Predict the 3D structure of the following.
Amino acid sequence: MKNKSLQRLLVIVFGLAFVGSTGAVIVGGLLNREGATASQSAYPEAPSPTEQLQSQARGYAKVLEREPENPTALLGLLQISLQTGDLKTAISPLKKLVTIYPERTDLSNLLAELEGELVKQSTNSTPASNSTETTKTNEADATNQDAASKSAN
């Protein structure tokens, strides 16, 4: 009998401990959620990815002002320029990296590729404006021909 009553007592004590600890976790989670919402509004929004890249580029530029041939800063500026699609800005650090590491053919190949892409972009932009002018001229000619044929009839 003593053993059974001891067992019952232990089951009750451990049961209450289990229920109490579970309840404490649930209540703590609910209170934390309310506190997290309040603390989130106290902090300003995180900068956008573009702003972060611009900030990193400014940092690399500052390093390059002090150390113009710092390979880490040159590589970082090159990567940011490529990520943002600014090929003109990417050329300068890439040229310096090619002079620092002439044995790295990947850098030389990338330089040739970027220069080729810039040439392509500059030649594509010129004919595009010419083709627009040609299209406008052709449309004007067609309109004039239509007007001439209608007046002849």
